[in-house]
Amino acid sequence: MPKTYSEKEREYIRKALKKAAAECLYIYGVKKTTVDELVQRANIPKGTFYLFYESKELLLFDVVNDFHDEIQKTLLKELESFGGNIQTQQLSDLLFRIYKKAEDSFLISLMKNNDMELLMRKLPDEAVAEHMVSDNKAMEILQRHIPKAEGRDMEVFSAAMRGIFLLMMNRREIGEHVFDDALKLLINGLAAQLMEG
Question: Which letter does DSSP use for residue 3 in this model?
């Protein structure tokens, strides 16, 4: 018979597992992270892991989604601080900060090592679909705070933003010494297109 945990214990275990998963993603990536490593870091029995997650991939994807949600919250909070009066350079600076936050996380190494693709392949279709809906909501938030973006095809802008993000995997090939300036230039162009209609 499986052990039952209080809500407080469940919350503690969930946080411990997510912390362990974030550490493992950063150090090992998806392939080399094991359930054994996760439960050791979270200091829980292996059987307890499966009371919370069906697979390591679902836990790792939860961590990716938490980071994604954190970025969306940051974006929304900063957009709201402008009170609907954001200028092109302010939007560009905000997007650059968001990109740099993503670059400093585990996401880039996941993508460079094809771990993100591996993770997505092993997830249930509904988990992937839910993530895409969340991605589209981020663009809707952006559109609501940029008056001239209303009625525009945000799917194209979303794709352009993903394209800029993917460039981060090729920092060395683009040129270490000019990468940030090149990134700013591309983001400035995207912001100008969004703001100026």
Answer: P
Kindly tell me the sign of the dihedral angle through the C-alpha atoms of 76, 78, 81, 83. negative
Query: Which residue's entry shows tokens 């892991």?
Result: 49
Contact 71, 135 (CB under 8 A): no
Find tokens 């009371």 and name the residue.
Answer: 51
Contact (Cβ atoms closer than 8 angstroms) between residue 68 and residue 134: yes
Taking the model in full, what pTM does it have?
A: 0.80
pLDDT tens-place string over residues 36-81: 999 999 999 999 999 999 999 999 999 998 998 898 888 888 888 8
CA 107 to chain centre: 7
How far is the C-alpha of 62 from the C-alpha of 53, rounded, in Å?
A: 10
Which residues, in sequence order, are CB contacts of 138 under 8 Å at separation 6+?
71, 72, 75, 158
DSSP state letters, 75-114: HHHHHHHTTT---HHHHHHHHHHHHHHHHTSSHHHHHHTT
Neighbours of 165 (CB within 10 A): 17
